[in-house]
Sequence to fold (237 residues):
Amino acid sequence: MKVSIIIPTLNEAENIERLIDRLEYYGGEHLQEIIVVDGGSEDETCYLAKGRGARVLKSPRKGRAAQMNYGVQHSSGDVLYFVHGDTLPPKSYMSDIEGALREEFISGIFRFRFESDRWVLKVNSWFTRFDQLWCRGGDQSIFVTREVFEDLGGYRDDYVIMEDYDFIIRTRKNYPFKIIQKDTVVSARKYETNGYFRVQTANLIVFNMYRLGFSQERLVNTYYRLLNYRYGRQPYK
Fold:
């Protein structure tokens, strides 16, 4: 097993070094490469990532789906592991992935917990142990074999929001999918900026709009109207 780690970034100078250090330190012999795919950062994300030994690519298109697909095109591992720039996978992430593959789960995800002591966020995190779509998300970090990723056609390039949900839904329809019962640590900055109930309301509205088949334009514009969300994608104009 050789694992290519793909990290889509946009202005992650605050977090990227500790993430790469953690992935490198605990990656062991199975770690093939760490690829940072940047969507046009205006801070020192790329400089800092290179300094930590990651391979840095500048994506021709902004948006996590397009950036992750671009990273896969330039990777060589037989297993792909997608990690957001403001998260920290468990120290045992590599052996956890190896164990899941040995059990013939060719794709999966971790639980998560927020980097916060707020009890309401702990409640949110607790639910990620369950096998329900609304408990999922890309922040939990997704692993998949290259063969399956290619068979599914990768992430949908036309998605600028909910791309992880779409990928998980398509994967689970055809392949064994495992929820590893260990935590990826996720930044709580969105909640700190907007407040818990505002974020939960936005998540609920957009999640249900997605399920009802609303367009990407409607989804992303609604999300950005509801939240002050400094990171990542920009709304449609």
